[in-house]
Amino acid sequence: MLDSIQTQRIDLAAAFRWAVRLKYHEGVANHFSVAVNTDGSQFLINPNQRHFSLIKASELLLLDANNPDTMSQPDAPDPTAWGLHGAIHRFCPHARCVLHTHSMFATVLACLEDPRLPAIDQNTAQFHNRLVLDKEFDGMAFADQGERCAAMLDDPDKKVMLMGNHGVLVLGSSVADAFNRLFYFERSAETYIRALQTGMPLNILSEVVAEKTAVQWEQYGDSARRHFEQLKLILDQSESDYRL
């Protein structure tokens, strides 16, 4: 059963506000979206050039990924938002929520010649063999790049794309699911980058233990929903206008 559009609006607005608190935002760039219909083609996304810290639920744009006239509308989204998120919602119905950021440590990882994330602790193991690595950066994410990225996201079991020389894109079954995954991926990238900075050898988990831990993450109850509910409660105490 789909959540109501108003519930989706509130959750996505909360994700934007928390992205600022966690320093995942970048100027008035980057975009979050969530599908609101069964086939995923209709979706909410942030308005063009609106700072994440100011976004309210009622301001989110409702777009149709199959509408060729979207960019000629008075309230058209950012062209890269339409290029990337429009393509994913058009071609990847399993991608209910799509979060794209240039968060610091994920982006640092994306800039390495070898951008793989080894399983060196419990958090990094969550993503063991579950990343899509895009090493074909060819400019900003307009329509052609969006369609290329969408074509790489056909495996519903791989919900994080590390976009080489660019940033990270995270998929989820809901806003809560995607935001929880973004949170843990950024923490994992930070752990790895800081471990590299020590110059000491890494203690990489075995294939067996890494896969076991990744499966355990996948079976770990509804922790994503509970995490996100707590985040909204914190917002309600200090900046509840995100719900408006």
In short:
The protein has helices spanning 5-21, 79-91, 104-110, 122-125, 143-151, 175-197, 207-218, 223-238; strands at residues 31-35, 42-45, 61-64, 97-101, 131-134, 160-163, 167-172.
* Overall tally of domains: 1
Order of helices and strands: HEEEHEHHEHEEHHH
Shape: globular
For the secondary structure, the number of strands is 7
Distance between the termini: 24 Å
CATH C-level: Alpha Beta
- CATH architecture type: 3-Layer(aba) Sandwich
Per the CATH scheme, the topology name is L-fuculose-1-phosphate Aldolase
CATH superfamily: Class II aldolase/adducin N-terminal domain
- Overall residue-averaged pLDDT value: 96
Structure commentary:
The chain is α+β, with helices and mostly antiparallel strands. The chain has one domain: Class II aldolase/adducin N-terminal domain (L-fuculose-1-phosphate Aldolase), CATH 3.40.225.10. The protein has helices at about 5-20, 80-90, 105-110, 120-125, 145-150, 175-195, 205-220, 225-240, and strands at about 30-35, 40-45, 60-65, 95-100, 130-135, 160-165, 165-170. Strands 3-2-1-4-7-6-5 form a seven-stranded mixed beta sheet, with helices on both faces. Helix 2 runs parallel beside helix 5 (about 145-150), helix 3 (about 105-110) crosses helix 6 (about 175-195) and helix 6 (about 175-195) packs across helix 8 (about 225-240). The protein is globular. It starts with a helix and ends in a 6-residue tail after the last helix. The model has no long low-confidence stretch (mean pLDDT about 95).
